[in-house]
Protein 1
Amino acid sequence: MKSYKTTGTGIAIIAALIFSINGFAQKLPYQNPNLPSEERAKDLVARLTLEEKASLLFDQSPAIPRLGIKKFNWWSEALHGLANNDNVTVFPEPIGMAASFDDSLVYKIFDATSDEVRAKYHDAIRSGKENRRFLSLSVWTPNVNIFRDPRWGRGQETYGEDPYLTSRMGVAVVKGLQGPADAKYRKLLACAKHFAVHSGPEWSRHTLNLYQVRPRDLYETYLPAFKSLVMDADVRQVMCAYQRLDDEPCCGNNRLLQTILRNSWGFKHVVVSDCGAITDFFTSHKVSSDAVHASAKGALAGTDVECVWEGYAFKSLPEAVSRGLITEEEIDKHLLRVLTGRFDLGEMDDDALVPWAAIPMSVVNNEAHRKLALDMALESMTLLQNRNNILPLKRTAKKIAVIGPNAENSPMLWGNYNGRPVRTINILSGIQSKMPANEVLYDKACDLVENKVTQSYFSQCSIDGKKGFKATYWNNREMKGDAVITEQIANPLKLTTAGQHEFASGVQLENFSALYETEFVAASTEEIVFKCGATGSMQLYVNGTMVRRTNNWRTLLSRVSYKVESGKKYKIEVRFAQLNNWQANIEFDFGKEVDIDFSSLINKLRGIDEVVFVGGLSTLLEGEEMPVSYPGFKGGDRTDIQLPEVQRNCLKALKAAGKKVIFVNCSGSAIGLMPETESCDAILQAWYGGESGGQAVADVLFGDYNPSGKLPVTFYKDTTQLAGFEDYSLKGRTYRFMSDPLFQFGFGLSYTSFSIGTAQVNKTSISNRESIDLLIPVTNTGKRNGTEIVQVYVRKTGDTDGPLKTLRAFKRIAVPAGKRAMANISLPPAAFEFYDASYGKMAVAAGEYELLYGNSSAEKDLKVVKVSIK
């Protein structure tokens, strides 16, 4: 245990000593840290006005100075490291962590993450900054939704398609974030989201009504991870989702929030709404008439904290009380949970009493955390194909080529809901570190999606006799008053406040605006494109007419076509304003698009036999409710799971030229790689690997690390194997209900070979309250040390309505070359639970079961033991 971590008993002793030394006794119960949090909260609730009570249920809760209540923000993110902050450790995206099947390492990562959150938070407060959105002690992670369909853009945030794997990983996340159960203060408040039955599409989530979800699918697939986080990890927050379930919005759904969450599972902490979910009641779902009725409906169902982009419905709670829609006593119940959570953090106590407040800034991105990021990136690497053992690559004098749109793409490695790291090792850099510089030829080759490249016209612009764009900045958001500075910009815009960088000298990091303007004379009549995006408010004007407007909390590049006439002058203006507490970013360029011709690339590769193509997707293509679309993509989701056409064409050209191709696929979801199994000699699924992702890829490609990752999702052959996106039935989905994908759940190759022997089972007949122990021999039959992941699945004999098999245990086991090791796995009674329609709940039924064990979910990779339950 780290030196700054102290148990509850230790805290009490420290508190008593401080009070004794100071001779100080608190006058009011809520100010006394020796009292239980709930008792303090009850006292404080009684001292508040109804309007004050309502305001403390906002995600951005205002200060109430008369009672010493500080401003508090409930919304921060820590999906894979502290998000929306600079100079932090960025770990691999959760879907990549899931491929490790290593929940012990996941725990260490989120213990490190919570250290960084605490250090950054207290440093900011001590520097005189407010508790702000995205830097608070409440973090809205983990996402334990089931990744049921590879088209969902947010599936990358999850731990895959399996309820058991998701549960194991999610519990580790929560325990790492919240700190030891016996500590007086919670380190952070974690959040299980999005409750429940939520996995896209992004474009319909505010209106979608899921009314045909079978009870069996609900209890066996969509709820288990949430139940585990509540009952096994004591998660302190649950976030309700946007869509409706059986006609009721999830944030106003009594069955979810009362019958299941509180009554059945005993959850006693805070329910937070997804952002805007309460206002959706009357703006999108149309189940409430206005904010007054929506606020009462959400609160009565069980929502405690409302998050909004703008305009709190919960501000109407006092009016709802006056109209008899809800009682003040009911509001007190919600506020009691909210304030208890804040007292549990120590947020209202002196820092001297809270050990977590002593975590120094030196822990942020320290060497230990960097190592954790690399270790997880290495364990996430999943080798899917290795024809003729082309991998690992040999370090010879022979040149190799590294090409592709993701080879030098550092932000791609950061994933989504990410922070900005101190440094990033991209994949090209990682490979270059393995060979002399003149032995590696690099070429981007193509874009991620677009079949054309843009020839920039930025340098052909001028204004006031000067080349480029004139940039004018104001230290307000309205472009009013005197400008701070005016300067000329010669290159395409790519500006950010990340890392505390000003857009220009004297420009504030927040509360500023900018105008970028120039004139362009068209050399010919043609169609040009503007490519632009911003975090903040951005408008693009051409000759005084607005042609593009965005208002976003992240930078998503969009493409705007525009026809110009030869000899005509065009006035171009880009207007920008920083918004909210977010970092500001802007990117802008324009020019002519030309077709890609791969013949020049092939000529450039003459004399080179081995080509590493680094492609796939990025979070510019897959993500949350994105306003931009490309062919095969819609609103952050996909409509086609194949690799984008331009990349497929590039790989075909390489194969036709006789190249040996190693394809490194970076994505947060399963790609339909059927064509690539033909055009590529090796396929490495690298996910979004975090700040050291490029080093991990290189270590695997050159054999410095033997890959051990296993797929946490099914890789389908193509989109034709998928049911409708809005169909939440599990029929034909995931490894549990389909058997002929391209690559199976749990599959992953190694540079060595393993043999799984016959398991020893302590019992083959048990009662429904007994466990079964398996001792499984694993032999490394190859010449390299390696790690195998032994997987145990359960199938109920004769259950034609149930899953083909379902994961109920796994174990990572390292085995030296030529040696044998034993995997000791215990299956508790819960491993045999399935939905019992006669009782309407999960139960262990008497009957015959099969235990299937091996190194993937494919039947050919599994051995069987039959057991019976009396």
Protein 2
Amino acid sequence: MDLGAKSTTRGDDVILGCGPLNADELAQIIAYWRAANFLTVAQIYLRANPLLTRPLSHNDIKRRLLGHWGTCPGLNLIYAHVNRLIKLHDANVMLVCGPGHGGPAIVANAYMEGTYTERYPSLTCDMAGLELLVKQFSWPRGIPSHVSPDCPGSIHEGGELGYCLLHAYGAALDNKDLIVCCVVGDGEAETGPCAASWHSNKFVNPKRDGCVLPVLHLNGSKIGGASLLSRLPRAELRSLLVGYGHDPLFVHGSTAELVHQQMAAALDFAVARIHAIWREARSGAVAERPRWPMVVLETPKGWTGPAEIDGKLIEGTFRSHQVPASACAHDASHLAALDGWLRSYAPEELFDTQTGALRPRLAALAPTGARRMSANPHANGGELLAPLRLPSPATFAVQLSSPGSVDAECTAVLGQYLRDVFKLNEAAANFRVVCPDEITSNKLAAVFEVTGRIATWDSRPGDEAASADGRVMEVLSEHCCEGWLEGYTLTGRHGLFATYEAFCQTVDSMINQHAKWLKATSEVRWRAPCASLNILLTSHTWRQDHNGYTHQAPGALDNLASKKGSVASIFLPADANCLLLVAHGCLASLHRINAIVAGKHAMPQWLDMPAAQKHCEAGIGEWAWASHAPSGRSGTQPDVVLACAGDVPTLEALAAAAWLRERAPHLALRFVNVVELLCVRTRALHPRGLPPAHFACLFGDDLPVVVAFHGYPQLFASLVHERPHPGRFSVHGYCEEGSTTTPFDMTVVNELSRWHLAIDVLERTSALGGGSHAQLIAELRDKLELHARYIWDHGCDMPEVVDFRWPAGSS
């Protein structure tokens, strides 16, 4: 629908004739918009004299001008009109601001609504508070230029573009009356994640979910050139958005008055349509997926700013993107341009120049209480958070008589646990699982006993577990899955993101941004902790022998390990019982990013539930049953430590320990398993890091340590670099070797196999064995050669490898 025409109708609904606003309403909303624009410009430029009550001078200007003006007037227009919508309909609306660099606009509106003062009492609604407001922006120890966690009403900083729609849709899920107004900048709209995220509307069930009202803001330019969507012919852009399943309303005009009237009309139509969709769906009258409204707002970039400076066009061009008049701290002509620009808003009409307060007639235009977008409780989701009801992991425990006596598929066991999480929280409707089309592949299909895959589109015979009421969200976009879950958890709910380990790195940057958000919000006193972002990395590197080299990449762990210990944890459970306990703890945790690595193939199980509980509580520990002390040496310091982290590394390390026990019984070996990886760090770097004395109890001060590690060897080495004599740690892990091969051959080509581990142990303890170690090492190298011939001849691993079991009676 094009609202640029003088009159437009749809069916019986008149969308725009003379416009929905009378003359006084139009003047008031434009004045509110001017006030927000003024405060926006003042924040970017001024350190003092916020209402220009004396002539503007160079000393009033910040020496470092940091900020982005170009997108802000459009944001201020949207904010003003959504406020009108909220008051008119008593609507529950939160804002997700895609152009994160529009920070000063959102701060200005939060201040005008009074929320900023409530959150920060020193920023009073008077001249002193106003002066502090403008000074703090992009000021040392002040606030950033983005829509940062300091800003009330935000769940999305927008530092990296592409994720605003995903966060908005995550917020709308299971929030039945919530409208999430999501501003998508035309630069953001060019990103790959944003392109995929337009499909999110197909995962919204209007019977139980809120909705997202996207506003695609086209202002023509990015930081240095034209934006793609702003240059598309109108018909082509309309077809694109209709193809995504939206009903676009186009707002554009030659005057401010016309644009404001169109925007009011567009939002009136949009909210009426949203409520009609909700009514129809909730009455059972609708059986097909609705076409949701959206707004396409076209305004000049840097609208209301200087037309030109230094003979170059500013308004409507890329030059307005950041800081026009950038030399005003020392250049008279730039200072004059800024002065004229600020005074063009007539601040004396908008603010009381004696007190600094916003004029009461304008302040009255804002919603009140929790209806203010800057005070919407969903934007501080920890305040709404109810703990998940979690089943007891013991209910699903794998029973074993001794270590390695039974096999199990770890993620299949976890699937039964997650099924019951869904059961227990059905009424609360506060738990979701998101996954790139891999729930069944990853052996989590037990969840389909109680819920389905959300599918609001046409279901056909053969579709399995498809349901409009499903609470599992599958789409082949890691960006969509991770972004939805971020939005969902940040607004007070819980969930799990399950994905192939190799392709989690697709969203490494999203995880980076979320980690920074969590760290920053933990330092904002009024923000309550949210549920953790829980990531299950499965179909992992060591069992991608069938898919091959492209699927072999454990680098997601490196990315997460680089984050602050206060927000990041990595778990490498060796078996199903440990996985159950780890998942239970992660789902109960708050304000963290938890990565869990677990395989889906049948493997030996090592710990019964009581032993697993003790082990997981510690995060790391000796498995005494796998350690070995020669006769007469019990209780003495071992000769070597054999450590492991991960399910396949644990299997290989135990196989190495069993071989060494039989073939080199004179060696005293301590076996250590790591379930919570970052425990090996120092306490200064991670809250679960081992104290020095505890670390020494496990690894000694100067003992040789051979490590079988799930990820890249250099990651583990970096984690222990501050420990005594870190060079004594010999780490075996993934070394970028692999192809389509056998499961065991993956460990061989990366030198993680049981035989490579045993060789390393023997070489590091050669002085203890005389010449016998050389003979044992030669025997192991012969095994490696035999393995290579066997897999070439037979296409599978040797029975000796496949049939390994921990020796009975040796535990």
Protein 3
Amino acid sequence: MKKNLISQLLCVTVFTATASAIDPGTLYRNTIPEDKNLDPAWVQSLSERGHALDAGISGSKAEDTLKYIGMPVSGIATGTVYLNGDGRLFVWDIWSAGHQGVLPNLVPPPKGYSGFRKQKGQLTPVSGSTYINPLTPEAFPPSFSQGFGLRWADGNIQQFAAADWESVEFTGTWPVATVDYADSKSPLQVELKAYSPFVPLNLQDSSIPVTVMSYTLTNTSSDTVQAELVGWLENMSNTANADTAGAFSIQPEWTSLSHACAMFMPSEKRGKRQSAPFHAKGSMTLSYLGTGERTAVNEVPGIATVIELKPGESREYTFLISWHFADLRIKMAYGPEWILEKNAYAERFEDADAVAEHVAANFDSLSSQTRAWVQTWNDSTLPQWLLDRTVVTLNTLQTANCNLLADGDGGRFWAWEGVRVCHGTCTHVWHYAQAMARLFPSLERNLREKTDYGTAQLENGVVPYRGTIKAGEGGGIAIDGQCGTVLRSYREHLISKDDTFLKNNWADIKRALEYLIDFDRNDGDFDGLLHGKQHNTLDASWYGKVHAISSLYIAALRAGEEMARRMDDREFEVLCRELYEKGSQGIEKLYNGEYYVQEEDPAHSTAIGVGEGVYIDQVIGQFWANQLGLGRLYNEAHIQSALNALWRYNFVPDVKAFRETFRKGRYYAWDGDAGLIMSSWPNGGLKDDFMNHWQYDYFNECMSGFEYQAAAHMVAEGTPELVERGLAITRAIHDRYRPQARNPYNEIECSDHYARAMSSYAVFLAVCGFNYDGPAGVIGFDPAIQADDFRAPFTAAAGWGTYSQKITPQQMQAELKINWGQVRLSRIKLNPGERPFQQVSVSLNGKKVAAELLERESGVVIALAEMIQIAQGQQLTVVLR
């Protein structure tokens, strides 16, 4: 009888309070199986090397896996340009219009969908429309003509697009994509390398408004081949009287075709609110790095260069498309008002021609550095799928989600949560992200100094969670975001080369933490846990003792203790320590024997929360502690039990049955997709009135930023079971974004390229067991997999390179090779496992370095006699015997 009732419920449109007469715990247990029944071959693949993300078409083109690919190939904070899987460029959100403006992408909701935020009955990007129906060049073609191809002697143009070639293969090694073209009727094979210059730690060279299209042509025939390589670019202006011919120029080493562009975006009405119309003026330039000539393709102006290749000969030809739109339209507050700012790149470059000139003059350096990073990142023993998935989310920096606002001092970083949705570099979203801090730490320091502790912070220490919005203006404080800001501040110190950042910002960091301490004190018991109204990232205020938020608070106290110690602020250090110890003990009252729960406040019995549910962020403070090397925050066994409970009760191998039962929530996982559900109530405790709350929708969703947080934590715990489960959750996300189904380069949560997804990098760091303290000159590695033969990339404060280690019964040899910049070191932390090595030898490029071997609880420390600097091209070798 019970089974029959459940079967009936699977068919209902909405999970309502009436349906909750059936025990919700039973429903969760029946739709989230404890036995995950995972394919053994799939599990084995979690740790196999594999190959880079690929897709392609051939022959009949029946299996086209290229169409959904949209890899950003624009500079950081310069707008969005997508490269399709077949090498075409599309989207072109470079003039502050956004998907919400010119690319609405409205799609019908799934049958029975009862989620929120629909427009005229259709789903918008906010509700996951681009997950269900990804952007493609066919569905969203550019409003102007642009492309590249071969012009043969008969005048026919063979475009670099799937329709014109028998075989097209895409290989993604973001930030560089490779597209290979071949055709039995063509004497040429073509390889495209597409990218925008991208050099970690070097923001200036990585934030240029340009896309590079480098074509290598190879003559596979026995005869000399002659043809023309052409590129064309129409004026993208959408106003009258645009100059359609453009300005053509031949320089000593490059040729250009420039357009002066004028764009107009009408006012946008949302409900009763209406924005002002937006006018944008700028320029775009098509350039060829060599001598070309003016041409036209279907009456669109372009550049042509003659090619002549002997049998077997190969040659590379490079085009650039650069752009320049000084005005930037952003939203600084709630309501209809949009304001005009200036793009920081407009302070560096006068127009698109100046951008092209700069890239042409520095192309060898920009190209070689970019390719060196790609080589470094992929030169690893780690699974390629893991390398791809954990770093690719950083491409949100290359989209219209992120901006650098002109301020005369390098720019002020400002971002949305997702493209054109939820403004203000929101603290309770962005604190999950780890990738930007590790690869471009200057942007995180910029955000702390110019926004969080600059324009935003209030006198009482509050950092309003939407940056420029003050308390009382719809912004105010998000407690989890406030904790995250303190934690990020300690991270920014650790990723710096010295203590300048901490010294300059300590007073403001301390005020931010003091607000939380006062929040604790005002509850009356001053117990290291937070009570009262706690607004958080699920857009609601929870009450009582909230396991997740108190976990973050405990981590923030530990970080505060460490920062106070380094600043010689003894009184504050002691206060943080005392409160941390109270919280570390007190939070155990929220442990129910299997996982942590929220102790709800009876005075706010109708407030939304998770109560007795199994919540994805329940031990998030320890996730942060792992990122910062803060050690164990509280009970190890209980934390591991809580993570195992997440796997048991929240991981769904196929969300189909779950979503057919629990209809509410947006679709970021589809039939056949696996994922970690935000919250479940397998043991009861889900209140009927929660189901009627619009924020209950969130609990039924798979949001990758949260999933990565839990996965990274599982891997960092280091037990074989949890490591495998953390990898499985990460791989489930990777599989959801397979090119056969959707865009692998656009992780979605409340719009495209959502910032929280950058927590993926935490999984990579956990797999490497990476530990770093730049000012102290300490680096460490403790791989969670493949420890006996391990190689992976790493970044430090001022350099990046490759770390490798090999362990045998006789010795452990570890090497640090610097491929860019330099790295200062005084100590190296390693874990040789159970091997009782007693001696150490260290050399830098073959020259002995004095060092001492120190034992610690989980491995060894190699203490160098003095601080050393490893320069680009040098290698440090450590041998333990």
